[in-house]
Write a structure and sequence with these properties.
alpha+beta, Jelly Rolls, 7-stranded antiparallel sheet, 4-stranded antiparallel sheet, about 20% helix
Length: about 250
């Protein structure tokens, strides 16, 4: 099955994996989110109709597995190679939107593409749905194949009629080439949508952002593969590690 998944990713630049999180994991994550919203409200950014937590891992070890998810690790390593590593971890809540506006702000993440086949993926992004997502809710949306070439077309030249609004039950994961044209599709809806967003790069490349602080417990005393996954730490993680050891 993984060979079929990889073939689909190589052609389309994304892959939907149902049941990447089980019911117990979904319940645990949402319970932690509820608690953190009450305990650390000032650590959640609140703008443009969404709340975003960039450092929820600091105080919530129950979520450690979500940055290096065991169910997806074989796919992550197959796409990115043995040097795959952590770049960013975010939890996002898009609130109910009963009165508008609606939008689908198409963009590429400003990290550049990779000219090398078959995956053309310099940075891999993963979205976990923590709530059910369907045609009546906000969705993650993508333009298939928009980064699967050595020199992708500029956004204004892309054929947006082929764009997809991806649905799935809570626990669904979407892996995608971060240079693909994608968007958060904001609809008129009574439903809140919760997601986890990950970025992964390579230890041989530069990191994509300095937002997420990765706590040392993620790699200290862990196996070699885990230590390597967290070995290329971003600037904020390095500064804190150097000045506040232990």
């Amino acid at each position: 099955m993984i060979s079929e998944q990889l073939q689909f990713f190589s052609e389309n630049g994304y892959l939907v994996v149902a049941d990447a999180l089980n019911a117990t994991e979904i319940h645990t994550i949402n319970a932690v989110v509820d608690s953190d919203l009450k305990t650390h409200p000032t650590l959640w950014r609140d703008a443009y109709g969404r709340k975003q937590a960039l450092n929820i891992l600091l105080a919530n070890p129950e979520l450690d597995f979500t940055m290096r998810p065991p169910t997806l690790l074989p796919l992550m390593e197959a796409i990115m190679g043995p040097d795959v590593c952590a770049d960013e971890h975010t939890i996002m809540i898009r609130g109910a939107n009963q009165n508008g506006p609606t939008e689908c702000h198409w963009h590429r993440d400003s990290c550049g593409g990779d000219p090398h086949p078959p995956y053309y993926t310099r940075y891999l992004s993963i979205v976990f749905y923590l709530t059910n997502v369907n045609d009546t809710t906000h969705t993650f949306s993508i333009l298939p194949g928009s980064a699967q070439m050595a020199a992708p077309l500029p956004l204004e030249q892309c054929n947006m009629s082929t764009a997809l609004h991806l649905t799935g039950n809570a626990g669904t994961a979407i892996l995608f080439n971060a240079y693909s044209v994608h968007a958060g599709n904001v609809r008129i809806t009574n439903s809140e949508r919760r997601t986890i967003h990950l970025y992964c790069g390579r230890t041989t490349d530069q990191h994509i952002s300095d937002y997420t602080i990765f706590p040392p417990r993620l790699w200290v005393g862990k196996d070699e593969g885990t230590r390597k996954f967290y070995s290329r730490r971003n600037e904020i993680s390095r500064v804190l590690e150097a000045n506040f050891p232990g």
